[in-house]
Amino acid sequence: MARLAIYLLYAATALRSVMLIAARRDPTLTIVLLGGYGLVLFSEPWLERHTASPEVVRRVRIVYMLVQTGLTLMLLLPDRTPDALLALFFPLAYQAVQFFGWQTGRWWIASFALPMLLYVIRHDEINNLIMAPIFEGACFLLGALAHLTQRAEAARADNLRMAQELRQAQRELEGYARQVEE
């Protein structure tokens, strides 16, 4: 379900951005970069399934995050770029925590403030100054959601493990009870 939400965030951001940019300038570069972002985004599950060791998976995830951040930065810097493209950090914020856990993921999310700051400096409209911190805050909210989802999944796994142990203990107690009856 989270992957579907990430894909929908990307699709909505891409569609809105292309429509806004087409009204301001030639959208060709934006379409190409958004296509690259989407290609990398949609290939991530495949890459992870076809990677051999946990250490290689970790490296792939780091490269993935750097490439996606770089593509987002390239999308943000041209003239007359709408702030809607800042929403491309939303999937990355969720994935940062999903990939690296809360401790490391929140540093990835904090690092997104730098490209957002560059965007605000490059596009010095008051609206951008207001929206960039809102987008950064939303990134932290999505990271927190990923963290809470991980905690809930871990608690569910613990509950299932304990339920299995209780079933096993119940079978053993029933066996002891039968022995005592005999």
Compact description:
With 182 residues, the protein is mostly helical.
Q: What does the model show?
A:
The chain has 182 residues and is mainly alpha-helical. Helices cover 85% and strands 0% of the residues. The chain is built from 6 helices and no strands. The longest helix has 56 residues. The mean pLDDT is 91.
Characterize the overall form. elongated
Structural class given helices, strands, pairing?
mainly alpha
Instruction: Please report which band the strand proportion falls in: under 5%, 5-15%, 15-25%, 25-35%, 35-45% or over 45%.
Output: under 5%
Number of helical segments with 4 or more residues: 6
H/E order of the elements?
HHHHHH
Mean pLDDT rating: 91
Q: Which residues form runs of ≥5 with pLDDT under 50?
A: none
Radius of gyration: 23 Å
DSSP, total strands: 0
Please outline the major beta sheet.
none
Report the span from N to C terminus.
53 Å
The residue fraction in helices comes out at over 70%
Structural descriptors:
182 residues, mainly alpha, elongated
Q: What are the SSEs and their pairings?
A:
Blueprint: H1 2-22, H2 28-49, H3 54-76, H4 89-111, H5 113-122, H6 126-181
Helix pairs in contact: 1-2, 2-3, 3-4, 4-6, 5-6
